[in-house]
Amino acid sequence: MCPESSRNIREVQCASYNNKPFMGRFYEWEPFAEVKGSQKCELNCRAIGYRFYVRQAEKVIDGTPCDQNGTSICVAGQCKSIGCDDYLGSDKVIDKCGICGGDNTACKVVSGVFKHTLTNLGYHKIVEIPEGATKINITEMSKSNNYLALRSRSGRSIINGNWAIDRPGRYEGGGTMFTYRRPNEISSTAGESFLADGPTNEVLDVYMIHQQPNPGIHYEYIIPGDNVISPQLLAHRRPGEPLNGQLGMAEGTSHEDEDLHRETDILTGQSAGTFPVIQPGRFPSHQPENQVPAMQPPRQNREHNWKQVGKTECTTTCGKGSQYPIFHCVNRITHEEVPEGYCDSSTKPIPEEEACNLFPCPAFWDIGEWSECSKTCGLGMQHRQILCRQIYANRTLTVQQYRCHHLEKPETTSTCQLKICSEWQIRTEWTSCSVPCGVGQRTRDVKCVSNLGDIVDDEECNMKLRPNDIENCDMGPCAKSWFLTEWSDRCSAECGAGIRTRSVVCMTNHVSSLPLEGCGNNRPSETTPCNNGPCAGKVEWFAGGWTQCSSECGSGTQQREVICVRKTEGNFDVLDPYECSYLEKPPIQQSCYLKPCGSKWFHTEWSTCSKSCEGGFRVREVRCLSDDMAASSQCDPQLKPEEKEPCNTQDCVPEIDENCKDKYYNCNVVVQARLCVYTYYKTACCASCTRVANRQSGFLGRR
Questions:
Q1: Where are the stretches annotated Disordered (predicted)?
Q2: For residue 58, what are the domain limits?
Q3: How far apart are CA 501 and CA 484, in angstroms?
């Protein structure tokens, strides 16, 4: 076993990496225990003051405990259990009787609940714990204003005696160590308790300091079986004392005599148990008749005798200690000290205890342990009990707080934080809406992240505070519009009448082709007439050359002029077409395709101007589309048509209403007096009041 003051073996292993750089920096390392399964036997260390941990080694040193609670240890990187017999892999455990590998038959469990109703305030006996008892557990069944108390049969108070309430802690009594607990958490409902492993070497009495209705006291302890004698008990047993809390009786002892050993609780009228109590004087010590007296030592020379030369140092500096006289052998005449062999040892005085330093010690603040943090993560509160105490006669007593006024009182409450709570983190921005128009949905990634930065289960975060990871999005109504290209630059005829063309497509305000009827019946024209001047010809069908393709790319048309002419000498006279009707007329139009267009700019018609005068604006939508009318980004940005332009920049001319005139010459006074709000003045000074109203509405509009 390692000494209690030694460092934890995992701390030692992690600290060995303090002088080794990690990613170019030096850190101080401490064990990180929040791991599961096979990771328990890895050396996982956390950088002190940082929110990350590192696996410094795949395996800890053999013999390192797997965790802080169990008895298993790591061997070759695997967690192995240890039995109570200290064999690796053994499944033996200590039974309730304290025997390794036992079957719980070597002892008896005594348990019960004290539920009696008490009326008087003060100390009331609950149960007695016999000599040799082990695994003692006295627990209040729920929190109350009552207190448990413990005293020995000899009358010595162990816990909460003489109306002095001790703070929770460890107290020695009856040959064992009792742990006194009094939960002080605000939210706790647990009562106080005494716990001890035992065995006890004397009978102990448990009391309750009654102040409010009894919530019930559960008691339990273990005593050796009828045929089992505890070696530890025999070591403390004196002649005439009971064994395991019972007196041995001669074979002829009657049951009436046995009843003399049963004690009845005078406070409750209930039997305190079947544990006989040895009454003082029941077994007087006497010397057997056949005892031979011991030989007396021969008398020594009376030239020397015992003399008190001083006293031992007082056991305490205050609060009533004890000291003893010191006797040395001296010459009766010269009083010089001589070896003790010169004096008769049988005449040496027995040193008797003497009280010393009777003045009380200064009062002090007795600081209790902090309670558990009110919250498992994040900022919480914890409490502790602060009592003013004073030591006297080797006992620590609780006194009035004014006696500690010379000292600063420690805080009874404090903030605490076991760890930073896991929190919700938004890991991504919202995605695009699932539809280009109308109502759709969009999503984002929301995760629960621990204080170490790891993604954990959502249950570890407050579900009430979880940000939404999906929501509806409204992209507006799915409008439909005609999209047009610009007119082609070339006329289909080099001379005479021809046409120019453009492309027309019906689309919603997102890229998706619709049937032509989707935009209504007002489809813009795809052709417009053009004329490059008259042409000359001869009498016959005369076909001119094909014009350039109406579209520089994609599908288009070519035109040519076909006329009826009469050829004259050096000239051609144009005749009416019917003159050539008996001849087959050549085609005047054909389709053409020069090359794929790639992407081109399309736009809608201009909207209505936003104002009828004084400058408004109108807008249109512009899209870049490929040959198959799909959205494209390949159009030249410098050729993109304007999407907004000014319109109706002329000044507004008010309409003159012949029926709205001023009937008086001084209507300006009516305006200045702000009388236009009245019907009479509004009619009598109609023109002036109207002008003022128009100016005010214009001013408000500009604001």
A1: 272-305
A2: 9-81
A3: 11
